UniProtKB/TrEMBL annotation:
<dbReference type="InterPro" id="IPR025543">
    <property type="entry name" value="Dodecin-like"/>
</dbReference>
<dbReference type="Pfam" id="PF07311">
    <property type="entry name" value="Dodecin"/>
</dbReference>
<protein>
    <recommendedName>
        <fullName>Flavin-binding protein dodecin</fullName>
    </recommendedName>
</protein>
<dbReference type="InterPro" id="IPR036694">
    <property type="entry name" value="Dodecin-like_sf"/>
</dbReference>
<dbReference type="InterPro" id="IPR009923">
    <property type="entry name" value="Dodecin"/>
</dbReference>
């Protein structure tokens, strides 16, 4: 029987939402193995004046726990 654990991570990027998700996955992959999926729970953009300065995401990362 497989057990799947879910953790929540926050990541950001100055480029795009897609890049923020990729940055989060890249960092999580350094310490978590067996990642199955990543679910974007929330998205935000930081604004200064009339320009978006960075994008942020809150993601749930699911991974299989070793038996």
């Amino acid at each position: 029987m497989s057990i799947v654990k879910v953790i929540e991570v926050i990541a950001s990027s100055e480029k795009s939402i897609d890049d923020a998700v990729k940055n989060g996955l890249k960092e999580v992959s350094k310490t978590v193995r067996n990642i199955d999926s990543i679910y974007v729970k929330d998205i935000k953009a930081h604004v200064k004046g009339d320009k978006i300065t960075s994008f942020g995401v809150i993601c749930k990362v699911a991974f299989r726990v070793d038996e």
